[in-house]
Amino acid sequence: xxxxxxxxxxxxxxxxxxxxxxxxxxxxxxxxxxxxxxxxxxxxxxxxxxxxxxxxxxxxxxxxxxxxxxxxxxxxxxxxxxxxxxxxxxxxxxxxxxxxxxxxxxxxxxxxxxxxxxxxxxxxxxxxxxxxxxxxxxxxxxxxxxxxxxxxxxxxxxxxxxxxxxxxxxxxxxxxxxxxxxxxxxxxxxxxxxxxxxxxxxxxxxxxxxxxxxxxxxxxxxxxxxxxxxxxxxxxxxxxxxxxxxxxxxxxxxxxxxxxxxxxxxxxxxxxxxxxxxxxxxxxxxxxxxxxxxxxxxxxxxxxxxxxxxxxxxxxxxxxxxxxxxxxxxxxxxxxxxxxxxxxxxxxxxxxxxxxxxxxxxxxxxxxxxxxxxxxxxxxxxxxxxxxxxxxxxxxxxxxxxxxxxx
Length: 407
Prior knowledge:
Layout: H1 10-27, E1 33-36, H2 39-46, E2 51-57, E3 63-68, H3 70-76, E4 81-84, H4 91-97, E5 105-108, H5 115-124, E6 129-132, H6 134-142, H7 146-166, H8 177-190, E7 209-213, E8 251-260, E9 263-273, H9 281-300, H10 307-321, E10 339-341, E11 348-351, E12 365-368, E13 371-374, E14 378-381, E15 384-389, E16 392-395, E17 404-406
Parallel strand pairs: 1-5, 3-4, 5-6, 9-17
Antiparallel strand pairs: 1-2, 2-3, 7-8, 8-9, 10-11, 10-12, 12-15, 13-14, 15-16
Helix pairs in contact: 1-6, 9-10
Domain Creatinase N-terminal: 19-143
């Protein structure tokens, strides 16, 4: 009786399945298929955020087995074999009944399971050898299709409009970080943000993002990013602090993500409390340098270039220009990357960092985020989301990167 709200096209799912099968043969050559556990990866491969496990064999039909939500999955999913289960011991029988029996060696996306559930799975599937298949999924999701890029381009347009065009008219010096965060949410929801940001790194959390006024930008951070923040509370290191006021003469950094239809763009917009004439040379020079780094990365992020080469070049620019101290964070806040993949999660493969030597290719999407900490003042800089094309990187989250003055 019910109709699906939206559906991933059948040809798009078929493309994803074929890509994952291809990568699986190089990542886990002994495996005859892969078990996928996290809701998000199940959504990526079926079109429904199921609570359970997907079996994707190298040959044969995928089988979606759910603890909860089979009725919804039958409305939304773009695959035909859907079953309910209570125990992992039922999985081999359900797959066999569907005509896609589990093979002797099985790959598993192990990051989608807790240690407790992984141990239980191994015990219940004692007749099967489990091997890691996570990297095959990362490689598959790394390159976006036209279907995915269309969503991300629309997301980036909304993102820029919110932070660059609308929000400056709703915030002013004298507001607290929390008040600014609430105004940002107000604008984001008006423009269609779907209310959730997802991260895949174990233990990382994100709600809206970072709102950091003045020296909050260098406040000690436990988040794996360069921008510091006081946050709401030690138990909620997100958004902005109710006691921290954005004062005249201070930069304000909003590093906050946008999400529509499951896909994210990442963007940092810098603001200054006062006229441009009141901006110090340190603030102006540091922000301009970050724009230069972003432009250099954009110019050089062409198919065949590696993320490691982009990272090394950025570090060399910072060293040569005298910005090495504070580049990508001050002291313990400094991080060993200048960007990351992005898509269904904020933090996808690959990082723009040392050791990431897989060449860029068209369809990849990267968030590039050069930042500069100014001791006892603030952090400044930019972040935008880029699409890798045949001709190089193209920004999909706006085309103006200046620090906006708000009086």
